[in-house]
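Note to self: keep these together.
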Amino acid sequence: MAYKSGIQSNILKDFSVSIDGTKLTNAQINDMNVVWDVDSFKIIGMLSFTDLTGLVEELPIRGGNKVVMAMTDFDDVVSKQSFIVSNVSTTRAVTNPVVTLDLIDPITVSAMQMYNEMSWKKADMIEIIDHVETLKPALSGKKKDFCPPPPKHKNFVMPLHVSFNVVMHWLAKNADVAFFQNREAFVIQPLDKLFKRGKKGDKFRLKTPNQQYRRNIYEYNLKMGKLFGANVLQPTGKVASFDPANKHSKHTDNSFKKALGDLGQTPAFGLTADDQPGTGAKYFYKSDYHVKEHTAHQWKKNAFKDVQLELLVPGQFATNIGDIVEVEMDNWLLQSTPEKNMTGLWMVTEIVDIIKPPEFIQRLTLSRSKYFK
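Structure:
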């Protein structure tokens, strides 16, 4: 069931675009894209319009201009998003010059321009990011969907020659959290907590007789069997164990998954200096990687994309990255049995808003993994 233009439920009820306060006419706008991704805090976009009035020279548009998009979808949900122009290109086809603007959200631009020399004796990721001298003044207009503070960073220093954009992405990369912004919130949450949230909205369906169904699937693309994504790259570490009774020690290779399970088996593991014979502890267990912190996060970032499903669907501003959604598909060979690889719950990890006024559709990337139960 391929997407066809003209379906009423894909039509925006209202849309407007302005550059530095100058509104473009609806006839000028060719297409707009906005990309939201759980792997990145930034929001990027693209705007293409026909420039018959010489707006590029009149304003002028040279990068740094402010673009405001305001739209209302078929469900009467309003989206208003501001961007900064990061690149300008013009293509002249016969007599009509077409201007393409690359866009980026203003908060990311602020972070890129921020070079604050600061230091903390002990601070967590949220304290550093949501600080009055860093991003806190810019984190307004949306709710803050923050997890309980992750582990503290001791003696953390922000050097003067590194932008805060680099700092905040380093913090996210080295912690067991996802750090992104969607339409509604700024999010700092552990990946497994995001996967365990309840589903949102109606089911996405591939086969439905109702062309106006708001979660109709027009096209799909399933990606799975990524050998180098999580399985082959699953970390292995050296493990040292010591039996206090016979003073015997040994070193063995252990998979990340088994190490996680072993560390959770107390008191067989985790003997400390305060433990005395008779407490039930049998082994001193030590690994050369931090199972619960850095290594776990690096593996999860690959593992949660074991299976990915791309969908082309009607546009809805209510859909956000980080949402848990349900997909229902029939097995085409058996005609009735649900397709196991695609039916079920997924997390929305990327959204591309595709707007060719007045039409609005979305390309969603859904992800899931056997690791998260």
